[in-house]
Write a structure and sequence with these properties.
The model has no long low-confidence stretch (mean pLDDT about 95). The two termini are about 35 Å apart. Helix 1 packs across helix 6. With about 150 residues, this protein is mostly helical. The protein has two domains: about 90 residues, Arc Repressor Mutant, subunit A, CATH 1.10.10.10; about 30 residues.
Length: about 150
């Protein structure tokens, strides 16, 4: 096995699959007027209601430099509010507005539409998600050990 052949690398199928899946999301997210990273933020907020920028970054593996402009655009659209914590003014809290909460109703159709678009079995997709999550968790744990 030649170690430097593209076909022998894990990075390429992960990268290509990620790009393809995001492309399939795009028409559905266009209907919601969201980018893919904005959709991820909204998913977390629909689940948790309010999170700090730091917590969002930890969940999404994004730094505040990436999150801040994204959150600013969501705020300009009236989907979220950004406020400073009363306990610690260095902490910026992100919360859903009523419009942001209402968008969840429209977004509920996205997972089923994605599954249909991809043409894969739901069980197959769940197995892949589990494997990728385990791999990601292992990498993150190893990084924390090294700190």
């Amino acid at each position: 096995m030649e170690i430097l052949k593209l076909d022998n690398q894990i990075c390429f199928p992960l990268y290509a699959l990620s790009r393809k899946v995001i492309c399939y999301y795009q028409p559905m997210l266009d209907e919601l007027n969201l980018t893919y990273p904005q959709y991820l933020v909204m998913l977390l907020l629909w689940e948790r209601k309010t999170l700090s920028v730091k917590e969002l970054g930890q969940h999404l593996l994004l730094d505040s430099g990436t999150l801040t402009p994204l959150l600013k655009r969501l705020e300009e659209r009236g989907l979220v509010t950004r406020t400073r914590s009363k306990e610690d003014e260095r902490v910026v809290l992100i919360a859903l507005t009523s419009e942001g909460k209402d968008l969840k109703k429209q977004a509920k159709k996205v997972p089923a539409q994605l599954l249909d678009s991809l043409g894969v079995d739901e069980k197959q997709l769940q197995r892949l998600k589990m494997q990728l999550t385990e791999m990601l968790d292992g990498i993150i744990a190893k990084e924390k050990e090294g700190q």
